[in-house]
Design brief:
Helix content is 45%, strand content 10%. The chain is built from 16 helices and nine strands. The longest helix is centred in the middle third of the chain and has 25 residues.
Length: 353
Amino acid sequence: MTLSASHPLMDGRTADSPLITAYRGGTPSRRPVWFMRQAGRSLPEYRKLRQGIAMLDSCLDPALASEITLQPVRRHDVDAGIFFSDIVIPLKLAGVDVDIVPGVGPVLGTPVRTAADVAALPVLTEEALEPIREAVRLTVAELGKTPLIGFAGAPFTLAAYMVEGKPSRDHLGPRTMMHADPEAWSALTRWAADASGMFLRAQLEAGASAGQLFDSWAGSLGLADYTAHVAPASARALDHVRDLGAPLVHFGTGTSELLGAMRDVGVDVVGVDYRLPLDEANRRLGGTTPLQGNIDPALLNAPWPVLEAHVREVLAAGAAAPGHVVNLGHGVPPETDPDVLTRVVELIHSVEP
């Protein structure tokens, strides 16, 4: 199986774009940059559009999700759109009782903590993913030569929410379960891998030109636990899309010690958070893997000379890698001035690749 002949990667729209070129280790026409959480709370036009609409409802309205995805591309001239959705959308579409509570995050009606709980989970169907495909089709039709990045939550992060039933600081529940009941843990992460993998595949088939797996909470794990209890499920999620040939990116926060293992689940690009300089990340990965990152989001509110010096440092450190897509070392903070982001993009584009 491969992508259809009319897919942006196949028909000439995005294959030679700066983003895809850098993801594949080539020299782009300009330095590519996009931001995690660029579609969202920092934009006044987003806040206006979302007024009175619940988060999951806005993700499942194809026209709304498409418009939100397009807003930062229009405003900032970034080199990719990142599909506006949420990592728990596959759970919602499967029929799991989950909601995003403002100021809290994902909350499940009933946590999943035993083998029986896992066995009772509903199965995500292809039909349920149709609103996702429709939103991607609408978005790609507007983006033209700018690639869309599809995304999904990595199985550990999804499973962590499912076990805790809500956001957690230390993820003790899932970390205990992987040792106390490894069979139930394995079954849960397989379920999460298949849901995330189907979610990502729906986006790629409908027109996304690359895919990113977000493991927001993997940084709570040591390398041995990650390798034994998490990496196999992440590889399983990506197995759903490998045959499509689109570049795949893996990103986690607090994962400096896990970079090699995260690459080895089978991705083309590794995202690096703000804690580790890109030249050191490149050294740890053996100098063979394109990198994405890693402007510190905290500096977006610093005086411009401080921010500019930092961005130039990131560009210099990223030059060590075989390819570099500029991003933040985590998401855009909600209070960020959008004009600062636009100015950062202009600065990055002004430096020769």
